[in-house]
Amino acid sequence: MDKKLSKDAYGGVGGKDYVPFVSSGSNSGGNVAVLIIGIILAALFAASTAYSGMKSGLTVAAGIPGSIIGSAFIAAFARQKGILGKNIVQGMSSGGESVASGIIFVLPAVLLIGSKVSFIEGLVVGIGGVLFGIGAAALVHNYLIVEEHGKLMYPEALAISETLVASEGAGESMKYMGIGFGIGGIITVVTGSFLNVANNVISYVNETFYKWKLEVEVSPLLLGIGFIVGLNVSITMFAGSILANFGIMPLIGYFAELGSEGANVWNNPDVAINSMQVSNIAGSYVKYIGAGMMLSGGLIGAIKLIPTIISSVKETLGAKTAKGEESSSAGKMILLGGIVVSFIGGFVVSGGNVFMAVTVSILALFLSMLFVIVAGRLTGTIGTSNLPVSGMTIASLVLVTLLFVLMGWVNPENNRSLLLFATFIVTAIAMAGGYSQSQKVTFIIGGNKNEMQRYFTIAGVVGVAVVVGTILLLSSQLSLTGDNVTFALPQANLMATLTAGIMSGELPWVMIIVGAVMGVVLFMLNLPVMTVAIGFYLPISTTSIILLGALVRVLVEKTSKSEIEKETKVSNGISLSSGLVAGGSIVGLIGIILQVTGVIGGAGPSGFAASNGMAFVLLAALLIATVITIMKSRVKDAH
Known about the structure:
With 639 residues, the chain is mainly alpha-helical.
């Protein structure tokens, strides 16, 4: 076994000639201890991703933090499995995160349209998506992973592989993750997500003349996300929020004040148009412009994928015909299981409509197969963090919605069924990306692809149970709409708005169309439409703290005296930020569960604790603790 990753891992040789990092001895990395560690981390990352993703609209790939945490646990409980065991654990971590990053885009939309979903329904469609996504991606494993080695770079898979190879230094990264978890947990405990004894939102709202709002939510998990995603994404999202809160909102407010008596808000007849406050404008009008912008961004992204779809399918079929390669029998069984479960799920969610169950299941399977291939190939180009899951899901959802309309299935119960079918599709797409990336790591390291397949499938099933359970536990908060809700759910709100609007026609279509036109203009200016749109839709309190996290990273980079020092501090900062995200998510989730079950409660903060001053104190504490911890990193900490 080499002491460092070969340059051939990056290409230069054919996939069949590549010599992996572990090239002798057993290639098995699994045992009972590895399985237990993997299940725990899959559940942890599934819950954390679900919570933070529903709050921010962004998800963070779990491969590298899973590698770091997994390395520490493997060293403690399964040392004999070494790097191969660590690879299994990072794959299972990615499996839990991949499930969450798909399901949260659609399943909460069922709650947003005023309907309900049972645990069994969510479990069946989710597991069906997991099995089909993995099984379909396994069909093209040889082509995507082996034949395209060096052509499809799989950038995040290479980064994960480098992390695994350098895992003897994982103790330092674990230290920073632990510190981040502690900082995030402590601040979250005192806020509304847990004990609710301190205000954590700095809020300034102007209700006269030029109506605007500027807020900052002191959230460790959002600060951590900002540090991880960096300045480009963060400032683009914040630009969307500035446009919404300082451009569109005052404009609507100005014209609303000119309105005549008797004209009321379209979805709130108790509020007169000419007396709308900022919250009414944001919740009833601005958010729908944002939905239109996200819709156009998703459709533009889907249209841009057409050449990739065509080339992916042609090259995949051509490679299979030329080489005669076949997937493993286990992969075929998983794929068959996904097909069977998808039809079972179709019958479960269609309310006894056999024709709906069969026709929509077939369409869902076809669309899933199409986009699974695309997801696997795109992951090789841009990684799972940048995978356009929302664009592929919107394209699929539009097609399935049109089928429902053509068949006359347009009542609220049918809308619920539609969203559950879409949950299957988005889960398959998200799992395919995560699975392909984990299999590329396995190929580079020298693990057993069939073993990774089994463990990744287990992680996916565990993730489905955790994410569906989390959504149901938070259902009372997830079903809230309007301005300043705990969970913004930008993607799920778009799915609910799109399907309900097409089916019922009861939407402020002018707002939707204005947003769509703005999205087209952004595209013509070569700007990232979906990123701006998500920032436009999210509360400015969310995007502002994400931007602060990115600015902390800029500060760290600019004050570093050498490239090695910068790499060390940014690496430790990312580890600390991963801890902030995990601490804020897990502690926040536990707190909300305790609140919902009545274990903890209270009247909320009062006096100074309820003021902007308290929020400024918390913000200062969070920033100081974060910046000082990262700045104290030493170059010798680098591995």
